């Protein structure tokens, strides 16, 4: 994501989950892996997903499910506060974020070292749905971001998300996908239904120096280990 952060086109990167230095973030993943497994996870029976009511911008316009701006019901939501991904050297603080009321963009923390948990979705205690965490890939001002190497993750890699309750939870990567931002299926990745999973998002693909946005989003899906 770029410094302005937005999970914007579901984005996570330079101004809207767009991220960036003036060059493309490496060459990106060699290929998508695990797409069928992600579809199976999302289609499994679970809690009904909220309706989509916010839009995000970037390379296109998409909807982000926020359930009319309400937080998940109940007082037992466990937000992630720290994320560790040994395979790519990540140990990052996680902050709760939402949607910018002025731009309708997913707000990623401005510091590239800090990543954002989509607080309108499930927490770590949930037995259904996608826990969305997004971060910058880099910034022209700050350099490499926490998710600079996210595109290197592959099936079988592990990560640990620690919640506000102090409990670490282990996950295993099952998929890595790349989408043009205007084409990313947000309902699948922001859903509160389906099997429990963590969805990590940042920017990737070619960088457009004119718009200062990356074209694509990198999406990594992990399930409880």
Automatic annotation (TrEMBL):
Question: Low complexity composition bias: which ranges?
Answer: 45-67
Q: What is the lineage of its organism?
A: Bacteria, Bacillati, Actinomycetota, Actinomycetes, Micromonosporales
- Write the signal peptide boundaries: 1-24
Alphabetically list the UniProt keywords. Answer: Hydrolase, Signal
Q: GO molecular function terms here?
A: hydrolase activity
What Pfam families would the database entry show? Sortase
Name-wise, this protein is Sortase family protein
Region annotation (Disordered) maps to: 45-80
């Amino acid at each position: 994501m770029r410094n302005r952060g937005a999970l914007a086109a579901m984005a996570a990167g330079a101004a809207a989950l767009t991220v960036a230095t003036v060059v493309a973030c490496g060459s990106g993943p060699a290929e998508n892996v695990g797409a069928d497994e992600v579809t199976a996870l999302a289609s499994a029976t679970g809690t009904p997903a909220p309706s989509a009511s916010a839009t995000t911008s970037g390379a296109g316009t998409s909807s982000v499910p926020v359930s009319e701006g309400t937080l998940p019901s109940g007082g037992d939501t466990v937000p992630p506060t720290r994320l560790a991904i040994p395979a790519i050297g990540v140990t990052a603080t996680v902050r709760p974020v939402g949607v910018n009321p002025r731009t309708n963009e997913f707000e990623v923390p401005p510091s590239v070292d800090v990543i954002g948990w989509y607080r309108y979705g499930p927490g770590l205690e949930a037995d259904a749905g996608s826990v969305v965490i997004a971060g910058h890939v880099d910034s022209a001002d700050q350099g490499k971001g926490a998710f600079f190497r996210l595109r290197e993750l592959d099936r079988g890699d592990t990560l640990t998300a620690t919640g506000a309750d102090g409990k670490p939870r282990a996950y295993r990567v099952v998929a890595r996908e790349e989408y043009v931002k205007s084409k990313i299926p947000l309902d699948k990745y922001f859903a509160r239904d389906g099997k429990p999973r963590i969805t990590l998002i940042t920017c990737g693909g070619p960088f457009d120096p004119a718009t200062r946005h990356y074209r694509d989003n990198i999406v990594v899906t992990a399930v409880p280990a």
